[in-house]
Amino acid sequence: MATGHILMVGAGLSGAVIGRTLAEAGFDITVVDARSHIGGNCHTERDAQTGVLVHAYGPHIFHTDDAEVWEYVNGFIPFRPYVNRVKTTARGEVFSLPVNLHTINQFFGTTLRPEEARAFIAETQADTTIDTPQNFEEQALKFIGRDLYETFFKGYTMKQWGCHPTELPASILKRLPLRFDYNDNYYRHRYQGLPEHGYTEMIARILDHPAISVHLDTRFDRSQAAGYDHVFYSGPLDGYFDYRLGHLGYRTLDFERFTHEGDYQGCAVMNYGDADIPYTRITEHKHFAPWESHEASVCYREFSRASGPDDIPYYPIRQVREKALLAEYTALAETAGNTTFVGRLGTYRYLDMDVTIREALDTARGFLDALETGRPVPTFFRSPL
Q1: pTM of the prediction?
Q2: Quick one: average pLDDT of 366-375?
């Protein structure tokens, strides 16, 4: 068994999974988090007024093709099956997302079969003059054509990212599927579900080990690192260095909470594609636990904006300026010594939960292997660049 004292900065998925893996390997683990709760942005809590289990920082749906990760989370808490069926209100109608055969037929007033719809989009909608898309808008025009793009993606994207789609990379749209069947499951992953008692309970169980101590409302300072054999840091990469080179760009979210007696919108997620609607979506949280029954409902309108110094960072922007600054911070991180940067904030990348857990497991195992073989422990097990 290995021995030593490890400091985990952050009590979210990365910190919990790495901490648990190393605790089981014989290390003493101290976890610190600046917030008053564990779970990071996955934090869930019971609303005192309605009893609804609320995703406090916006909904998190677990979906993965990674069988080991699925078995890992289910080893701590039972997951209930859940299919994410997103709707969108646009131009005075409600449509199904992602864009599928139902969406196409409803939007164009047709009754096309799959191959007919495929040919219709390719021959009458897609912009075939665009060979290599250079930005989000060009990718959309080449992919689905102007009508579908302007209805479902242009306004929503401008609200979400705070800029015109021509300023965003084409790669963002490549994650959004176009389907020529009636499958309205937002994801195609083999395993999909939600933890029966919420993510915070799941993370609490992961952290429940005699070698792990958790300290909330505790802000990390680099001077603390001297008392530990190694530090795993899942906070903001630029924050570790007190933003000495400047702030990496993020988008953040504001939430407008309201309650409703009964069922407010009949679904968990309703997007709003029109640019003149200021919010991007409304989420109704009792629908994220369909196995429960609640008379009242808790809903949130979501507003996206640029993240300021005191805001919670959500989505890394990763445009040209941010990538240049990221390269500078990455080089600076290599000088930190006995510190490994992990997770969404520590590597300045957008990560789904299953990928976060996979990378945390691989990082902990890679750390143990480095110690056993005498190799240096990497500053990044997955490069941010």
Answers
A1: 0.96
A2: 96
